[in-house]
DNA sequence: TAGTTTTGCACAATCGATTGTGCAATTTAA
DNA sequence: TTAAATTGCACAATCGATTGTGCAAAACTA
């Protein structure tokens, strides 16, 4: 059923039908009687305009591309949900791309989405390169979670520096001096900020930050597991581990448990990136909670500001430390 | 940059350019020399055809609509990931709709996706109604996870009956007679099949299935929590709880812990729907593991069979029981 | 009544690709 | 050398909407 057929059925021009159905009958002086007839027939015949044709004509698709590294990571799944919800409110849809933290896939995704003429892009980039996010990208783009230090892409992210600083301070105040940090993808901005926050806290409390072991290389459970195994084989085992995301924390937990050690009696564990089941783990896991909903919502809002030709904005949202039972107080006081 | 401009640059017709770029130069006898020139210029100018225009002309969008109830549920997040990956291999993209288990949103999503002329639909429906999945739906559709007993939509799902039967048998063999079951959305097929499997197992072992308490009404953590609270207030507390999905299980766990009870000493807990962190919970949670990857992959394969005009197929994939430490053996033997 | 304004709607171009068909130019066959 | 076959490419229609503009008919004004 096309608008043409509908018009024939009504014995009028497609022009008139189109104008009524797009709510422009006033503007083009279509009589109320005619408008009525059109609307009735349209709903009677279940007419829905072909959006492909409309998109071509209007040079606008009401579609946003969402590029994330891993939808099976609950952090991004939650983000995707909020984004979808916010966009739905604004009559836009989401084209989803999961890059698996692979740069080639990310580049390819950008190209595919642009060829499909999305109205805008929301990207949680791998982080190594940014050129492909600029070149030929003629639509608004907002970075989520990760951004680039030296390039002014608008972004929405957690204040990772702050979060890591708070988390590390917390550990230190509980008496920990030998703290290991297991990181995620090294070149991503959240990782770098968290590392800086970690180191700064150590320094501020007079601990030699260069001596602290920082290991690991991606955001996987596997990495948390392997890195922790390594740590546990060192001569001097750290008294606390700071895991830079939820999956690393789980891997760490598994390794510690397998080694027959107890958290927090033998070793403390603190995670960046809260999950709702953390309170049910053994022991309940302390963590830094990112404002996930706010990130998604703000990202969409920021994108819409750009779509409305407003100025780019930049957002670092504060995370919150949630104390549970995985950090032991070993201070001598 | 349009194909027309590219053609002007090359001083030839758009026809020729189009034919070369779509790999039809042989078919239309374009000389290799010309083809070369076209390809070079195209890559030099970073030309990418406008897919909206192509889609309109070809009546095909290489886009699949994925409708799921809750992307923040890791079950569906994992599913989404597999689906995206499989579709990417086949040069298709995913338009994502999260219905929040709301029927109106589901109906709306179907309409929006159809208006966008998706080539096919993958749907995990709410389950109450199915008419909107048939009416005006002129593209292949495959149901995932949930299906309709009395309507022959092709589907891919876990063998929920089998899984629940096995799980319940497991509990019974461990000596449990008073087993409570906390269900999800009552009218969804997985829920119904699981309930049937649960009841059949009870009967087969000579336990009065009508006496077993079945409570709860959706797949949320909240429901697991509230329902368990209710259970724990009964005169005779069940010796085991069978939670029909991962979120319900977490809620149950929380309620049990809060009540000061121990799993499995005071009460056993078994979950349908495995998650990778279950082994790290306190205690490690036994569960029925659904073949999530296989479901996603099979769903995409099934959809492509339909796209190739092959016959609809129906799949029930076997789940596996994973024994951990949340079920106590209380048999008197 | 004639001229002007307003009302109500349709014609045809346009968005950017793809493709059936036709027509020169070149090559081959006779 | 001429006719037939082949090669190489372009014209113009098409997909299904939206929209600037134009033109009758109706309503109003003088």
Layout: helices, strands, pairs:
2 copies of one chain form a homodimer.
Chain A: H1 3-10, H2 14-21, H3 32-44, H4 51-58, E1 63-68, H5 74-89, E2 93-98, H6 103-115, E3 120-123, E4 141-144, E5 155-158, H7 160-173, E6 179-182, H8 189-204, E7 214-215, H9 221-232, E8 240-243, H10 246-258, E9 268-272, E10 286-289, H11 292-307, E11 314-317, E12 320-322
The first copy, chain A, binds a DNA duplex (30 and 30 nucleotides) through α2 and α4.
Provide structural commentary.
The first copy, chain A, has helices spanning 3-10, 14-21, 32-44, 51-58, 74-89, 103-115, 160-173, 189-204, 221-232, 246-258, 292-307; strands at 63-68, 93-98, 120-123, 141-144, 155-158, 179-182, 214-215, 240-243, 268-272, 286-289, 314-317, 320-322. Chain A is α/β, with parallel strands linked by helices. The first copy, chain A, folds into 3 domains: 3-49, 434 Repressor (Amino-terminal Domain); 62-158 and 292-319, Response regulator (Rossmann fold); 160-289, 3-Layer(aba) Sandwich (Rossmann fold), CATH 3.40.50.2300. A 6-stranded parallel beta sheet of chain A has the order 2-1-3-4-5-11, with helices on both faces. A 6-stranded mixed beta sheet of chain A has the order 7-6-8-9-10-12, with helices on both faces. In chain A, α10 (246-258) links the parallel β8 (240-243) and β9. In chain A, α2 (14-21) packs across α3 (32-44). The radius of gyration of chain A is 26 Å and the shape is elongated. The termini of chain A are far apart. The mean pLDDT of chain A is 96. At the A-B interface, α4, α5, β2, α6 and α10 of A face α4, α5, β2, α6 and α10 of B. The structure holds a DNA duplex (30 and 30 nucleotides).
């Amino acid at each position: 059923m096309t608008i043409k057929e509908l018009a024939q059925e009504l014995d009028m021009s497609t022009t008139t039908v189109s104008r009524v159905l797009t709510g422009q009958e006033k503007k083009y002086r279509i009589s109320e009687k005619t408008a009525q007839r059109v609307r009735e027939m349209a709903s009677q015949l279940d007419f829905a305009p072909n959006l492909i044709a409309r998109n071509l004509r209007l040079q606008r698709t009401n579609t946003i591309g969402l590029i994330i590294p891993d939808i099976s990571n609950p952090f991004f799944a939650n983000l995707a949900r909020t984004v979808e919800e916010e966009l739905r409110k604004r009559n836009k849809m989401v084209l989803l791309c999961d890059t698996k933290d692979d740069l080639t896939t990310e580049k390819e995704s950008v190209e595919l989405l642009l060829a499909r003429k999305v109205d805008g892009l929301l990207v949680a980039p791998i982080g190594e390169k940014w050129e492909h996010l600029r070149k030929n990208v003629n639509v608004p783009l907002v970075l989520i979670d990760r951004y680039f230090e030296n390039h002014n892409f608008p972004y929405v992210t957690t204040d990772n520096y702050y979060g890591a600083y708070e988390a590390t301070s917390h550990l230190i105040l509980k008496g920990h001096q030998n703290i290991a940090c297991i990181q995620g993808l090294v070149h991503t901005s959240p990782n770098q900020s968290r590392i800086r926050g970690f180191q700064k806290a150590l320094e501020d409390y007079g601990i030699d930050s260069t001596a602290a072991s920082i290991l690991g290389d991606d955001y996987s459970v596997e990495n948390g597991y392997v890195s922790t195994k390594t740590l546990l084989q060192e001569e001097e085992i750290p008294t606390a581990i700071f895991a830079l995301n939820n999956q690393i924390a789980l891997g760490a937990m598994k390794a510690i448990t397998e080694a027959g050690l107890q958290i927090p009696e033998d070793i403390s564990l603190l995670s960046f990136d809260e999950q709702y089941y953390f309170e049910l783990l053994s022991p309940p896991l302390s963590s830094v909670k990112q404002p996930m909903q706010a990130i998604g919502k703000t990202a969409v809002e920021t994108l819409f500001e750009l779509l409305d030709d407003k100025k780019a904005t930049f957002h670092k949202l504060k995370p919150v430390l949630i104390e549970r039972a995985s950090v032991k107080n070993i201070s001598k006081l």
